[in-house]
Design brief:
The chain is of the alpha/beta class. The protein is about 30% helix and about 20% strand. The chain has two domains: about 240 residues, Alpha-Beta Complex (Spore Coat Polysaccharide Biosynthesis Protein SpsA, Chain A), CATH 3.90.550.10; about 45 residues, no CATH class.
């Protein structure tokens, strides 16, 4: 029923834990396809359940969705290398699919600007949601029907743009444009972390490490470029739709863009943790920084 796509590059040491997590789901994957952009891998002990594609070059994150056409199941789940799903995440996604077929993820964002990635409203493992929430994009995990891959490649990324970012926005945009399919975060209730899309402690630690593609000002500029490309070509954001329109006050360009703040959070993890709590408390009062 489910094929999982994993990618490996600079954080291969966590791959074994990720595979074990996928295979121990209450609705386990039938097969795991590993897209490896790093040193060659040779995993033993999994038999035909695990297939590895070792690449001589780093082909970026978009290529995972081309590799996914090798899936022979109804559903596909692509996982980032910093994502360890909780035991019932796939089951959670399948239940949500029965209610509304949608592109599902472990974390979702509602953008507050058509041109800037930050600030945003977040849902999922880092900001638990009691019910399913419609968002602009999802990340860390993408759970979808295999047939939707045809829509992903309906339009190609512009020549000269980064292949390291933007695939998340592109997928949501293509599904919205051609199939009218929404992007959602399934329920992530505080009372039941066993159905969450990621273990928060691991996601925060790995997602803020120097290997993460989201780190650095250059990465943020690429995110901005990708978002502006999509919105300028017709991507309709939640803030423009009545039942998901954002309200509140937006202050500044996004605190996580500030180099000084990022350096402090990296050097002193407690500052990063305190900052995330403060940002969420302000967001709960519709103040976004």
């Amino acid at each position: 029923m489910i094929t999982v796509i994993l990618n490996a590059f600079k954080r291969q040491q966590y791959l074994q834990e990720q595979i074990d997590s996928v295979l121990s789901q209450t609705q386990p994957a039938e097969r795991i396809l590993i897209w490896n952009n790093g040193e060659a891998l040779d995993l033993c002990g999994y038999g035909n359940n695990v297939m590895i594609a070792n690449n001589s070059h780093n082909l970026g994150v978009w290529s995972r969705f081309a590799y996914a056409i090798n899936a022979e199941t109804e559903f596909v789940c692509v996982l980032d290398d910093d994502t360890i799903p909780a035991p019932q995440f796939f089951e959670n996604c399948l239940q949500q699919m029965k209610l509304e077929p949608a592109l599902l993820g472990a974390r979702g964002l509602r953008f507050l600007s058509n041109k800037r990635y930050h600030p945003f409203i977040s849902f999922g493992w880092d900001a638990p949601n009691e019910k399913a929430e419609v968002v602009d994009i999802v990340g860390h995990a993408w759970f979808f029907k295999r047939e939707w891959l045809g829509v992903f490649w309906r339009e190609l990324p512009p020549l000269g743009t980064s292949r390291l970012v933007g695939e998340d926005m592109h997928f949501s945009f293509m599904l919205q444009k051609y199939l009218g399919i929404r992007t959602m975060v399934p329920p992530h209730p505080r009372s039941n972390p066993s159905i969450w899309g990621s273990v928060p402690e691991i996601a925060i630690r790995l997602g803020t490490s120097k290997e993460a593609v989201s780190q650095g000002n250059e990465a943020l500029q690429k995110f901005d470029t990708a978002l502006h490309h999509c919105t300028s070509n017709g991507f309709i954001l939640c803030k423009e739709v009545a039942d998901t329109a954002s309200t509140g006050i937006v202050i500044g360009p996004g605190v996580t863009r500030m180099r000084f703040i990022k350096k402090l959070a990296t050097k002193y993890p407690w500052i990063g943790k305190w900052g995330r709590v403060l940002r969420q408390k302000l967001a709960d009062r519709n103040i976004h920084i």
